[in-house]
Amino acid sequence: MKKQKLSKKFIQECNKITAQRPRTVIQHILKHGSVTTQELKDRYGYNHPPRAARDVREQGIPLETFRVVGSDGRKIGAYRFGDPAQTRFLKRQGRTAFSRELKQKLMDKDGCRCAIYLEELPERELQIDHRIPFEVGGDRGHDEENPEDFMLLCGSANRAKSWSCEHCVNWQDLKKPQVCRACYWAYPEKYNHVAMRPIRRMDLMWKEKEVEVYEKLKRRTMKLQKKMPAFVKEIVKKFITE
After folding, report:
1. pLDDT by residue (tens digit) across 63-97?
2. Residue range 100-181, CATH number
3. What is the pTM of this model?
4. C-alpha angle 47-210-108 in degrees, rounded to nearest 5
């Protein structure tokens, strides 16, 4: 792929970034012009490429997502620098390491649990995340003095949120924080849309002894030749209407 013409200042600022994951993506693009999701997985071991791309964007560096043909002939995602004029070097803060104090405040307020699954988990499995993505909320979301701007998520929930946010029109074009404030991924306890779709969502986690119940439910679903989500809805509907 033909490499972009980049200004000396843009390259200098890119080289100032030291955080490992965004720096890896940036340096690959500087050298090759772009990086594919397959390269991020196979060469660098990043199993969730959108997360790596998001880290770059949170450093204030614009990225464009486009499609290319992968080694197996299928279309895959790829990233290259966006318009350098949209770079926010002076405001760049990126995904810094949040303080232990902030995590403790969140656990004191909401418990040691994932805000999406509402399940208690070991502290080491919980990650601090901005309720309103940096790409939408900007630098305001980095003030640790306001714990209400953050949430604790397990890795699974964080990846699901990242994927949904990055495919949302508000993330891509509108950039309106008020839209995020009404979204499931920012405030699952009170929302009216999921990434601007007028739907409702519930994420369930089965752990410890509950796994046995899940397996029974799975076997029953297979025996009835039904899909598990539809069968669960049938059970709930029957229960609340009786």
Report:
1. 999 999 988 889 999 999 998 887 875 444 444 56
2. 3.40.1800
3. 0.68
4. 70
